[in-house]
Design goal:
GO terms for molecular function: 5-amino-6-(5-phosphoribosylamino)uracil reductase activity. This protein is of the alpha/beta class. It has 5 helices and 10 strands. The chain is about 25% helix and about 30% strand. The longest helix has 14 residues.
Length: about 210
């Protein structure tokens, strides 16, 4: 599909992976639900070279920095493509919002920011610090969307239903949101990328005020 362009200097994208039934992960399942393929992993590498600053909270920082470190070790258990996607994050600028982590952070190119994450991101957008994108960090992504700061909402949908084992429901606590599709793609014949322009609604369209 065609894509509507946004000003890259002020753009913010929420970027999520999700099961078909709306979970970010599942107990007992491997990362990416075990369905990441070479085409998807190559795309992740390409995305990491587009100049994004990655925004995340403390929990995502702990998980991803640990995985990136493990990927550099021999017999890490990661495939070559998985390892490249993870270690490639070392060189990417990252902003970590946390009141519990202490500086300096061990993951290269990571800046620690305390205080109100929404106001910090609002200022980053005003100052043209983009392009910005979230990495995981469901509560941060939700807060930024509620605040009307998100220019793109991008999902990669994995073809699994984890009704018994699903963890981290993505849309709990979200407002009503209208989504205008501006891009789509299929990876490895099974993963579906969907990209939207989001508009936060006060209620159902056409409903009573």
């Amino acid at each position: 599909m065609g894509e509507t362009t946004a000003d890259p200097a002020t753009s913010l994208m929420v970027d999520l992976i999700i099961s078909l039934d709306g979970y970010a992960s599942a107990e007992g399942w491997p990362g990416w639900w075990g369905l990441e393929g070479p085409e998807y992993l190559a795309w992740l590498g390409e995305e990491g070279e587009k100049g994004y600053t990655f925004l995340m909270g403390a929990n995502t920082y702990r998980v991803m920095s640990s995985m990136s470190g493990e990927a550099t070790e021999q017999d890490s258990g990661f495939s070559e493509d998985e390892g490249a996607a993870l270690t490639g994050l070392d060189a990417v600028p990252k902003v970590i919002f946390s009141s519990t982590l202490k500086a300096p952070l061990s993951w290269p190119n990571s800046q620690l920011v305390g205080g109100d994450a929404v106001e910090a991101v609002r200022q980053m957008k005003q100052e043209g610090k983009g392009p910005l994108t979230t990495l995981g960090s469901l509560s941060l992504a939700r807060s930024l969307l509620k605040a009307g700061l998100v220019d793109r909402f991008r999902l990669v949908v994995f073809p699994v239903i984890t009704g018994s084992t699903g963890r981290e429901r993505i849309y709990d606590g979200y407002p009503d949101v209208a989504l205008e599709m501006v891009g789509s793609r299929t990876f490895d014949g099974r993963l579906q990328l969907l990209e939207y322009i989001p508009t936060v609604l006060d209620g159902p369209p056409g409903g009573r005020t």
